[in-house]
Design a protein that fits this description.
The structure holds 4 protein chains of 4 kinds.
Chain A (H helix, E strand, L loop, with lengths): L3 E6 L2 H13 L3 E6 L5 H7 L6 H27 L12 H27 L23 E6 L4 H10 L4 E3 L5
Antiparallel strand pairs in A: 1-3, 1-4, 2-3
Chain B lengths: L27 H21 L8 E2 L15 E9 L2 E10 L2 E7 L12 H10 L8 E3 L2 E3 L1 H10 L6 E5 L5 H13 L4 E4 L6 H11 L4 E4 L6 E5 L10 H12 L10 E6 L4 H5 L2 E4 L5 H12 L9 H16 L4 E5 L5 H13 L7 E4 L11 H9 L5 E5 L3 H4 L4 H6 L2 E6 L4 H4 L3 E4 L8 E4 L5 E4 L12 H8 L7 H8 L8 H9 L27 E6 L12 H4 L14 E3 L1 H7 L5 E7 L2 E9 L7 E5 L28 E13 L19 E3 H6 L26 E6 L8 H9 L6 H6 L8 E9 L2 E9 L18 E3 L5 E3 L9 H5 L6 E2 L29 E2 L5 H13 L12 H5 L5 E5 L6 H6 L4 E2 L11 E4 L1 E3 L7
Parallel strand pairs in B: 7-8, 7-15, 10-11, 10-13, 11-12, 15-16, 16-17, 20-24, 21-23, 26-37, 27-36
Antiparallel strand pairs in B: 2-3, 3-4, 5-6, 5-17, 9-14, 18-19, 20-25, 22-23, 22-25, 27-34, 28-29, 30-31, 32-33, 35-36
Chain C lengths: L11 H13 L8 H27 L14 H25 L9 H21 L26 H34 L3 H11 L6 H34 L11 H28 L7 H31 L3 H13 L3 H13 L7 H5 L1 H28 L14 H24 L5 H23 L1
Helix pairs in contact in C: 1-15, 2-14, 3-4, 3-7, 3-8, 3-13, 4-5, 4-8, 4-14, 5-6, 5-7, 7-8, 8-9, 8-13, 9-10, 10-11, 11-13
Classes of the chains: A alpha+beta, B alpha/beta, C mainly alpha, D mainly alpha.
Chain lengths: 172, 939, 459, 208
């Protein structure tokens, strides 16, 4: 039966080496927990780059398109009042609000996507309660690994790879 | 959801009438109250507005008079007398209450025009501070019983009446009946701006007191000696119309009349003058004598160069235009000067051509005056003194002690006055709009006065008071009027036609053949400073309680709410004082301290003072505004000499609506002489014609395109259009502090531009109102469509949509948009003032922009009537309030498609121009440049 | 490498204790005398602000000094001034991030907080200066049963869209950047009560690598979006004047001139706030001399652009041949009513920044603090010059008038200063002043650079 | 260290955030709904009048023309409510002493007007003109509903600006002067809004 373990590493290089080493074995590296966005760990995990910018582009275009349509529909179609001798449909004047709404919806999409994809709208999760895990937001680097077989051999392997501490995650 | 103020706005101390503007009047109590409410209000604000609005009520009449359709205006003809002379007016009423006074087009003294006093009279009718009913020593008593008491008394000894000059046939017959009942009763007339000298002069020169009927439409050359005939004389409306008819030219080839004016203070007539001489009032007799001599061929030796040149030029023109010249002299001139001018007019052949003489419309013009009453009072002969409509304690301080001595005084007054405060009995005077009566116009036409509304408060007219003394227990002016004009019954067809017309036909007084005898007027010794006394916007003080007139900017000074010592820059330098410094004026023991108002074009060595201010009674609007200058004025004198003026070191704030009078090389109001205009007919072409624009042409539904044309050549600056606009469109008053802070609400203002070249001041009056631009800069900046363009070319202002960003006012280059800084109209809600509001125009709330709408309510009413009658709008059917009031007809309004109307023909004249044309706003209001007609070689 | 941007080489733990410690150091801010005095003054001014707002809303704009023709005065001056100050924060955190100016890391949160609080003061005025502020919602296209909509050819709905977008994006960018730090505070705050509160805002962050990946992508995208946004917002604010017809307003230099002026007065406010905060919390090791010098240099650059803006205004006024423009720029402003404020603007905006050509000028902290206050005073009087003086001397000489503020105007302006300080003091007390996770990342990057440099040196 | 938050706190947290969002949304949507509800437009609330006047009896049974009592509608902006004299025109003879008409008689002989409650109340800044609508052939029922069926008059149409605009922007010719259905039919079958500013839709048509 497979078991999930959490290993604490003193610094970036240690955890990066451990990740590369573990990838050769058939243990599954679930995720790393780092106090800051470390490039080394990211390269080591070698996951697909985030597709968030694409979502943001789509959100931005919807915002801009929707804003332009709304302005045209209200000002040029429903009640086409003439002001200052300008024709009711006056694209030059619609550009600014279109741009602003494009930026607004793009930003909202970015933040909401981050919260959703990062599953951030929560107070706690499965690893939060593990003993000593608070150092993950201080100076230590934690690694979550799913053992292939029983947990024991993985525990020693992690020790050898430089883990200063290995814990089993507490389901609070 | 609209947020209307649920808590009434009058929680602070003063009367809301003049707008809520006492910034430093904030007391601690109010501050704490607001602090406490502060946190709650933000949340409650929206919820408070959701409470169910109270259901409105409808109260139909019990019995429907056939002619009264709810919602339809009705216009009745009546007349408004002033010091004896009546002007026919047509009053618009809604739901049986008068809301707007307009001129009666058929009446000879009006021809459709009105003066500011006529326009503002409707506000006096609804003044909440009017006296109501009768009081005896302050204790309210019943009016009818008081009158019955006097009616029963016979042969009262020492009965004196003091009243303004009368021309009414009804009053004449009542006076005879009172004399019959009380032998020895004496009737004296008193008017602060007295015209006795006119009749004394006529008596001296022509044998008997006669009235001069001038024909300005036949006069090619007019010389005015301190006579503001276009604005401030009894028949000014008619004279302004006639003068304009002769003056206006429709092409460079036209023939203009020429106007010479010699006057101390720049006046509306003076602003049209081709040659204007700033002359001290004491110099006017000398100038007249020199002119008389020059006309007879002996050029004048006296006076300095400018005066001599002016006299020789005038004399030359008068001699050349024999039979088509006219010399006019102001009412306040001394009697000998009047006599001399009659002789002068005879000399230049004006008699029978440009001037005719008729018996005066005024009854017994040289009869008893106030001095006779004072002498009798001192001699103890006055038992019962009846003072009607006049205020001698205020307006004749010299004679007041004698009058106050009388034991029994009855005062018939419109509002609590200085005189009524000391009278034993005070009776409310009926306003002309709520009383029956008659009066003669200047030319003698008997004009009828009929009530527009049942009297608001128990009040009595002068005729009814006289009838009481004549023995009538229940005096009824209507019955008396019918008897006077021998009308069988009220529904007599002839009488109804007369009432509908407003006057009795061909009752004008016949002309009399006269010859003038020679007279000489020796000039008064000029020592110290001259003081000349003028009528003010509140006339002689009787209209001081009228907020519209108090806030009406004076034609040349643009001063409001109070008076000032007006002097020339040279006099100010001589006094070492500057604009706004308070000066002390002393003469024969009388002292007055007023701020100095420096006015270019004013005569040197002379100070102009305006009567009617510094009232000590008359309601909150009148009291304490300006300084009372009557003490400086000996009884009945138009001007005095020998005054001593000194700086006091203090300064005072002058509430003016225009502070800069130069054009700063911007060609805003072009003017030219006739000769120059003939050489360069297209001199305003750079301010006309289409302007380049990147904007595509916007097509809208084809409808009549409204536009306006104003001829600045005819505008005297008299400002009756400003008050007409205020009366028609419910424009509020902001009070003195509001004017000082540039928050005046008038939708139409008269911009006056002055140019000084070697001593002469050229003046252009330019009525400035919303131009209704086709490419309006105010429209595209409004964030909520509160202002936009209609298919018929109007720049529309929607008050209920405006949120008050005020960007439109910033972006309007003409600055014609006004803002409701406070709740200016809240004070009138619930008082009789609200009755004056025009129901077809929204009464604006706080925080909303407003501007001239070309009287859109009149345009839409005409549109609706035309649509209901399945026809097009007729040319000239829509008349704006300002166009209607203008005496010289300078404002023309109409549709561009109506080719035949004046508005369109005037537009094509070569001297047409648009103000700020280069900005590309394409205004619909087009102006015509001012043309003057100086002598070819400048004298 | 010129001066280092982090002094000493603190470990992650030391950085954490120092930078998070600002929120719970002993003695706590609350007990210190200067804090209580500052908080008292700021609280009083905030109370003055809200009572004057109520007084103005219930009584009318007439309480202010505005009149016709000067229909806009303190209301719009303060709006443009505050929103101008707000732009430096986004400039530092977004634009300098894109230019990989690593020194921006330690001051970006403080600047961004200043932006948010400044925009809150600014957003107050477009509603408060309305004649009928309870209908301000008509500026937004809600489904109205009156079937009437906002008029989008006017610059004011653009303002409404721009300012609300700017506030939202700044708030998101600031909050997103703070989530990792809030997580650190949730884990290391001294008392359980504080840790629960921080936990509420930390959204359960625990530094998962996959989340970091999306986080960094989102942060980069937001920085990318905020850059054109900050340039567009003040261009839109300048379009309030540039699209108008008033002489002195309608010139094409306004958008760049206003944006430069905004960043110029923004950096001045950053300096005004940074210097005292650095001294109080002893952040000299992370906010080094180089940061202060860079802020001074950027202030100088943007100051010169503002000076260029003035020159173009004068030249265009003469070059246009339009009498009213010439009179406005050459006669009305230097000699007309309000001329002292014109000269104050010229001195403070053009002469004062020239001090920063000299190193001594850029490093003397007291001189910088004084210069920053003067610059903001100058920028306020520049807005006065543009708005009020232009309206006082317009096209028709008959409507020339002058303006004078009332005590309500001054009270409201001081009130906004108080409310801004109140918010800033609360920020200093409860939230990490410097972005901790970004500083750690910066420290590690600097180490990698050092190692790579050594490796290159040995080869 | 013990877990700071129990597991269930996540769901509570998400519900709280959702509550805040919904609260904000309802703060915006709430007034919009209220404005369209009959509380605000005061529709379908029969007003209790000082005199129990029953239109069903007068208008439908006796077939009295609307314009007989509301005679001003053809010539003026204001339709006008009949004066007591108009009532007494018939009721001097018919039902001379009916108790229901006590108020009318008392008003007629003492000269005090009857204090009716206004049912169709437009805001003061709106200038509606009856005469031009009648001239265009509109029947009273188009806006007032079928008064002939009402015991007490109530407001049927919302009389909101949107409602007026829907009619004013539709391209229509003069209407045949028939009953309620035709005018309502015209509204339903009308082609879509004609996007052009005509004299009917420009603001000073109704706001002056």
């Amino acid at each position: 039966m497979s078991e999930r373990l959490l290993a604490e590493f003193p610094d970036e290089h240690a955890i990066a080496g451990a990740i590369r080493a573990l990838r050769e074995t058939d243990h599954r590296v679930l995720d790393a927990y780092t106090p800051f966005a470390s490039h080394e760990v990211e390269d080591a995990l070698a996951r697909r780059p985030s597709r968030l910018p694409f979502a943001v582009f789509v959100g931005g275009m919807c915002g801009a398109g929707g804003a332009y349509f709304l302005q045209w529909y209200l000002v040029a179609h429903l009640y086409p009042l003439v002001v200052g001798g300008r024709p009711p449909h006056f694209p030059v004047a619609f550009v600014i609000i279109t741009f602003e709404m494009g930026v607004l919806f793009a930003s909202l999409t970015a933040v909401i996507a981050t919260l959703v994809v990062g599953r951030l709208v929560r107070l706690t999760d499965d690893v939060q309660g593990t003993a000593g895990f608070e150092t993950a937001t201080r100076d230590r680097f934690w690694l979550a690994v799913m053992s292939h077989g029983p947990g024991e051999p993985l525990r020693e392997l992690l020790g050898k790879l430089g883990a200063s501490r290995v814990e089993t995650p507490e389901v609070a | 959801m609209s947020h209307d103020h649920d808590h009434d706005h009058d929680h602070d101390d003063h009367d809301g009438h003049d707008g809520h503007d006492d910034l430093d009047g904030l007391d601690r109590r109010e501050m704490m109250h607001l602090l406490a409410a502060g946190a709650g209000l933000a949340g409650l604000g929206s919820i408070a507005a959701c409470m169910e609005p109270p259901t409105e009520r409808i109260q139909p009449r019990v019995e429907d008079p056939p002619e009264l359709v709810p919602g339809m205006p009705l216009t009745y003809a009546t007349s408004l007398p002033l010091d004896g002379f009546a002007v026919g007016v047509a009053v618009t009423t809604r739901e049986a209450r008068p809301i707007k006074v307009e001129g009666n087009p058929d009446h000879p003294a009006s021809l459709g025009a009105t003066t500011p006093l006529h326009q503002a009279s409707v506000l006096d009718l609804y003044d909440p501070h009017r006296t109501k009913g009768a009081t005896e020593r302050g204790v309210p008593i019943d009016v009818a019983s008081l009158l019955r008491g006097f009616a029963r008394r016979e042969r009262i000894r020492g009965l004196w009446f003091v009243m303004p000059p009368q021309s009414s046939p009804l009053v004449a017959s009542l006076i005879d009946r009172v004399r019959a009942r009380h032998p020895g009763a004496r009737f004296a007339t008193f008017a602060p701006l007295d015209r006795r000298a006119v009749y004394q002069g006529a008596a001296a020169a022509l044998g008997r007191p006669l009235e001069a009927q001038y024909r300005f439409d036949r006069a090619d050359v007019v010389v005015s000696l301190d006579a503001d005939f276009a604005c401030a004389m009894p028949n000014s409306l008619r004279w302004a119309h006639d003068f304009a008819a002769r003056r206006r030219i429709s092409s460079p080839a036209g023939e203009m009349s020429r106007l010479y004016v010699a006057e101390p203070r720049p006046s509306p007539t003076g602003s049209l003058a081709d040659h204007r001489l700033a002359a001290r009032p004491s110099r006017i007799p000398a100038i007249a004598r020199a002119l008389f001599a020059a006309v007879r061929g002996r050029p004048a030796p006296t006076g300095e160069l400018r005066e001599r040149r002016w006299i020789n030029a005038a004399a030359a023109d008068l001699a050349a235009a024999r039979g088509r010249g006219l010399v006019v002299v102001g009412d306040r001139a001394p009697a000998e000067l009047h006599a001399l001018v009659h002789a002068l007019n005879a000399e230049i052949g004006a008699f029978g051509a440009t001037v005719a003489f008729t018996p005066p419309a005024i009854l017994d013009p040289l009869g008893d005056g106030l001095p006779e009453v004072a002498d009798a009072a001192r001699a103890g002969q006055v038992e019962l003194l009846v003072i009607a409509e006049v205020n001698p304690v205020y307006a004749a301080p010299e004679l007041a002690p004698a009058l106050i001595g009388v034991r029994d005084t009855l005062c018939l007054t419109h509002e609590a006055s200085e005189t009524s405060a000391r009278a034993r009995w005070t009776v409310a005077l009926a306003h002309p709009l709520e009383a029956w009566g008659d009066a003669r116009a200047y030319d003698g036409t008997v004009s009828l006065i009929q009530p527009m509304i049942r009297p608001l408060h128990p009040s009595v007219s002068l005729a009814e008071m006289l009838a009481a003394f004549a023995g009538e227990e229940q005096p009824d002016a209507h019955r008396l009027l019918l008897e006077q004009h021998r009308v069988a019954a009220p529904d007599d067809l002839g009488w109804r036609a007369a009432l509908r017309r407003g006057f009795l036909e061909n009752t004008e007084l016949p002309a009399v053949e006269v010859t003038a005898t020679e007279h000489d007027a020796e000039p008064a010794p000029a020592s110290g400073y001259d003081l000349s006394f003028d009528a003010s916007p509140v006339y002689d003080g009787r209209f001081a309680g009228n907020a519209w007139l108090q806030e009406l900017p004076r034609p040349q000074e643009k001063l409001t709410w109070g008076n000032a010592a007006i002097a020339s820059p040279a006099t100010a330098r001589a006094l070492g004082a500057d604009h706004g410094d308070v000066v002390r004026i002393k003469r024969n023991g009388a002292v007055a301290e007023l701020p100095l108002f420096v006015l270019p074009g004013h005569a040197d060595g002379c100070v102009s003072l305006e009567l009617g201010y510094g009232r000590r009674a008359g309601g909150p609007i009148a009291e304490g505004v300006g300084v009372d200058v009557y003490p400086l004025r000996p009884y009945g004198r138009g001007f005095v000499t020998g005054a001593v003026i000194a700086r006091t070191g203090a300064t005072a704030e002058l509430a003016v609506t225009q502070q800069h009078f130069g054009q700063d090389h911007r060609d805003v109001a072009p003017a030219a002489s006739l000769a120059w205009y003939r050489q360069h007919p297209r001199f305003t072409d750079h301010m006309w014609g289409p302007t380049a624009t990147m904007l595509p042409v916007v097509e809208m539904e084809p409808r009549l395109q409204w536009a306006m044309t104003i001829d600045t050549m005819l505008c005297t600056g008299c400002s009756s259009c400003v008050i007409a606009c205020q009366a028609e469109n419910n424009i509020p008053v902001v009070g003195r502090r509001g004017v000082v802070r540039n928050r005046v609400m008038h939708w139409l203002r008269i911009d006056t531009y002055r140019a000084e070249d070697e001593g002469d001041v050229e003046v252009v009056n330019q009525p400035m109102l919303c131009q209704h631009c086709e490419k309006a800069p105010c429209e595209y900046v409004c964030p909520v469509y509160a202002t936009q363009h209609s298919p018929d070319g109007l720049n529309e202002m929607v008050y209920n949509r405006c949120i008050g960003t005020r960007f439109c006012s910033n972006n309007c280059p003409y600055k014609v948009r006004r803002f409701n800084w406070f709740d200016f109209t809240g004070g009138s809600r619930g008082t009789t003032l609200a009755l004056q509001h025009n129901p077809t125009v929204t009464v604006r709330a706080r925080g909303v922009m407003e501007k001239c709408t070309y009287c859109v309510q009149r345009i839409r009413a005409a549109e609706i009537t035309a649509r209901v009658e399945h026809r097009e709008i007729r040319p000239g059917e829509v008349v704006t309030a300002c166009q209607q009031a203008c005496p010289t007809g300078a404002i023309k309004f109409g549709a561009l498609q109506h080719a035949g109307t004046d508005m369109v023909t005037w537009r094509e004249e070569p001297r047409h121009y648009a103000v700020l044309h280069h900005l590309g706003t394409r205004p619909r209001t087009v102006y015509l440049a001012k043309i003057t007609n100086p002598r070819p070689e400048k004298p | 490498m010129s001066e280092p941007i982090i002094l000493g080489s603190p470990t992650d733990a030391e950085l954490g204790d120092q930078l998070l410690g600002t929120a719970w150091r002993r003695p706590a801010l609350g007990e210190q005398r200067w804090w209580r005095v500052a908080f008292g003054i700021a609280g009083a001014l905030t109370l003055v602000l809200f009572s004057l707002i109520t007084y103005t809303v219930t009584t009318g704009i007439g309480l202010w000094g505005n009149n016709i023709p000067v229909a806009w005065a303190f209301g719009i001056i303060n709006f443009v001034w505050w929103i101008g100050i707000g732009h430096a924060g986004t400039f530092i955190s977004a634009i300098l991030y894109l230019f990989e100016q690593r020194w921006r890391t330690s001051i970006n949160r403080l600047a961004e907080a200043m932006t948010l609080f400044a925009v809150m003061q600014a957003a107050l005025y477009p509603v408060l200066h309305l004649g009928r502020p309870w209908f301000a919602y008509w500026l937004f296209p809600y489904p109205s049963q009156m079937e009437t909509w906002p008029q989008v050819k006017s610059a004011l709905p653009w303002d409404a869209a721009a300012v609300s977008t700017y506030f939202t994006v700044s708030l998101l960018f600031w909050y997103l950047g703070m989530i990792p730090d809030l997580a650190s505070m949730r884990d290391h705050a001294p008392t359980r009560r504080r840790r629960i509160i921080y936990g509420l805002f930390a959204l359960g962050w625990n530094g998962k690598a996959s989340t970091w990946r999306h986080y960094r992508a989102a942060y980069l995208v937001l920085a990318g979006l905020a850059t054109p946004l900050v340039l567009s917002v003040h261009s839109v604010v300048s379009s309030d004047f540039a699209t108008a017809l008033v002489p002195g307003w309608h010139s094409t230099i306004f958008p760049p001139y206003f944006v430069a002026g905004a960043i110029f007065s923004g950096f001045a406010m950053v300096l005004t706030l940074l210097i005292p905060v650095r001294a109080i919390f002893k952040l000299h090791n992370v906010v080094t001399q180089k940061h202060i010098e860079n802020c001074a240099k950027l202030t100088l650059v943007t100051g010169l652009i503002v000076a260029y803006g003035y020159i173009v205004e004068w030249f265009m006024a003469w070059y246009s041949g339009e009498r009213s423009e010439l009179y406005q720029a050459w006669i009305a402003r230097p000699t007309g009513p309000g001329a002292p404020l014109f000269w104050l603007a010229m001195i403070c905006n053009v002469l004062v920044p020239q001090l920063f050509w000299w190193k001594r000028g850029r490093t003397n902290v007291y001189l910088l603090f004084a210069a920053s206050l003067l610059i903001n005073l100058g920028m306020w009087s520049e807005r006065f010059m543009i708005i009020v003086q232009s309206l006082e001397r317009e096209y028709l000489p008959s409507m020339w008038a002058s303006y004078a503020p009332t005590w309500v105007d001054l009270g409201l302006f001081l009130g906004t200063l108080g409310f801004f300080s109140l918010l800033f003091l609360l920020f200093l007390r409860n939230l990490p002043v410097v972005a901790l996770s970004e500083m750690r990342e910066l420290r590690h990057d600097l180490e990698h650079d050092a190692e790579r440099k050594e490796a290159a040196a040995h080869v | 260290m013990a877990a700071l938050y129990p597991r269930w706190s996540n769901t509570v947290y998400r519900l709280a955030l959702l509550g805040i969002l919904l609260g904000a949304a309802s703060a915006i949507a709430g007034p919009m709904l209220y404005v369209r509800s009959t509380y605000n437009t005061s529709q379908f609330t029969p007003y209790e009048q000082p005199v129990e006047f029953d239109h069903r009896h007068h208008a439908r049974d006796d077939g009295i023309e609307c314009l007989y009592c509301h005679s001003a509608a053809e010539r003026s902006s204001n339709a006008g409510v009949p004066s007591t004299g108009v009532c007494m025109g018939c009721h001097a003879q018919v039902y001379k002493d009916s108790p229901l008409l006590a108020t009318v008689r008392q008003s007629y002989f003492t000269g005090t007007p009857i204090n009716w409650k206004r049912v169709h109340d437009l805001p003061d800044f709106v200038y509606f003109d009856h005469s031009v609508h009648i001239a265009r052939g509109f029947d009273c029922s188009a806006c007032h509903g079928d008064v002939g069926m009402m015991a007490r008059v109530e407001q049927v149409q919302p009389l909101t600006m949107g409602w007026c605009i829907d009619c004013h922007t539709v391209e229509h010719t003069t209407l045949p002067n028939d009953a309620w259905e035709a005018s309502m039919q015209m509204l339903i079958t009308a082609p879509t809004r004609k996007p052009e500013i005509t004299s009917l839709v420009t603001c000073t048509a109704c706001h002056r």
